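The material for today's practical consists of a large collection of protein records. There is nothing in a record beyond a sequence line and a structure line. As an example, a complete record with its sequence and its structure tokens follows:
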Amino acid sequence: MSVRFAAPILSVLIAASAVGQEAPRENPYDVLGKMLRPFFSVFLIGGQDVNKAMVLEMKVAQVSGRLPKQFEGATLRAAVQFPDKVKLEAPVFGESFTVCRNGPEVWATPGQKVGFLLDQFKLKPQPTQKASTPLFLPFTAQQAVFLVALFTMENPNVAEMDELNGETCRILTARLMPELGKAAKAEDFKAVVWIAPGYVPRRVEISRNDFSAVIDVTALKFSPALPASEWNPPAGDADVFRTRSEYLEQLLYVVVNSLQAKPGDQPWLNEK
């Protein structure tokens, strides 16, 4: 599951928590817009919202197609804080790998094994330009206002509902607008999102002709800021890989594409 799919996935993994409400039944574009609202404050503009940080925990529940079966069951933790902090923890080689951007610097642990992965992947993203936001995204804060308009909803006039783990969820099924899908060579892209009361995402299903992935959101919390210790390597850990923020996407790519790999595996052989 390449980090290049980060933008559409992040777009559907954002919500504000609420208690005692019913699953949203209004226009699906309005529902998607309300999910995106806190996303803007954390990933793009900071803005007037008091919450400029978030912690997200998720589990890869199912994969198919060209995605390695070993991805299934992987649990990931992501922390983000506007304007320049990102952290991902993921299982690789039987232990937790961490990639973190703290301002202009990026560090990763365990350092030697991260360096090994970088050497083995023949294809990986080129360094990006310096980003004034936590992640380098292919759109501006001004353009993000129109993100909802980039999707077409299946059954837009029907509030499809179903139960998921004891909660009644609203289900949105979205595709890219035909013109955008054609331009991005992603006309087959489809996302199905399960939304619990309070516009809280519980499950995201991403599919194309050659792969599919089901991601369950197990925890999501927004806050004004996270502790400074979140963004530093563990005290006393000398095995730390260090580089510049332009290489963040490259590190995320090799770690995400190595989820739950065993020491003897060669995940880079799946590159296309």
User: Anything to note?
Assistant: DSSP finds six helices and twelve strands in the chain. The two ends are 12 Å apart (CA to CA). The helical segments are 6-12, 28-43, 111-120, 141-144, 178-183, 248-256. The CA atoms of residues 51 and 76 lie 22 Å apart.
